[in-house]
Amino acid sequence: ADTATISTPLSKTLSGWLIAWSYYQNGSPTYNNYAFTLLPKAALLYNTTGANYLRVTFTMANVGTIYKLLWYDDTHIIGSDENKGGSLAQAVMTEVYAV
Fold first, then answer.
1. Could you give the CA distance from residue 87 to residue 66 in angstroms, rounded to a whole number?
2. Tens digit of pLDDT for each residue in 49-83?
3. Is the Cβ–Cβ distance between 99 and 60 less than 8 Å?
4. Whose C-alpha in 3, 28, 38, 82 is 20 to 30 A from the C-alpha of 55?
């Protein structure tokens, strides 16, 4: 699984982390054809089960509608290995913004 360490903790954001997904082609992100998803601060603050994961869904040209399974804590986003197969592998997280 791939792990991103985020410099602004999720608990310190106003609303959460905005994740930018880019089309992934020939082993590299294209840095265009973006889709965006929100990992909300509330997912961390109001989680009472300890299961810090969610599926985000988005639509991207040349890919269609897909989901990504993400695990998270206050400073990390961890992608599931299932994100690397089939059409799920055609989009990759390229930026994360504190919002």
1. 7
2. 777 999 999 999 989 999 999 999 999 999 999 99
3. no
4. 28
